[in-house]
Amino acid sequence: MVVIPRPQLDEIIGHATASPSEEICGILGGRDGRVERVYRAQNAADPAQRRTRFTMDPRDIMEISDRIEDDGLDLIGFYHSHTHTQAYPSPTDVADWPARWYPDALCFICSLMDEERPHVRGFHIDESGAITEDTVSVE
């Protein structure tokens, strides 16, 4: 189980709803399964594909990873949005998931399928591509 305080959840949702026609992305830092900070990243995918694809800029990953470490936190997971589909990893999400480098990181997805009720879920994706949902508790 991972705990996301309401302000951090609202920040993820706010990031997604600010660009509802493009997938957004970022990294979550925290301790002991509790998200403490949201670090926004840039979607470096081709602009023509951003409605259904995201690519986190490798420089963002390195810079944010360093900031997480400097802040005394652990990398809890990566987040992105789905502009028009459910909050569940797509085949592309699974294929691109960095399980090899971040085996304990969770994949958080914010679905904007129902624009009035964005929904965030968290998943563990292992190197084989197996998906397991993790409980996300909002406090």
Question: What features would you describe in this structure?
Answer:
23% of the residues lie in helices and 34% in strands. The chain is an alpha/beta fold. The chain has a 6-stranded mixed sheet, sandwiched between helices. The protein has a two-stranded parallel ribbon with strand order 1-8. A hairpin with a 2-residue loop joins β2 (25-31) and β3 (34-41).
- What is the succession of H and E elements? EHEEHEHEEEE
Largest sheet: 6 strands, mixed
The structure class reads alpha/beta
Rg, alpha carbons: 14 Å
What spatial order of strands do you see in the largest sheet?
3-2-4-5-6-7
Classify the helix fraction into a percent range: 10-25%
**Global mean pLDDT:** 96
Q: What's the tally of helices? A: 3
Q: Unreliable stretches, pLDDT < 50, 5 or more residues?
A: none
Features:
139 residues; alpha/beta; two-stranded parallel ribbon; globular
Concise summary:
The chain has 139 residues and is of the alpha/beta class.
Topology:
Layout: E1 2-4, H1 6-18, E2 25-31, E3 34-41, H2 58-70, E4 74-82, H3 91-96, E5 106-111, E6 119-125, E7 131-134, E8 136-138
Parallel strand pairs: 1-8, 4-5
Antiparallel strand pairs: 2-3, 2-4, 5-6, 6-7
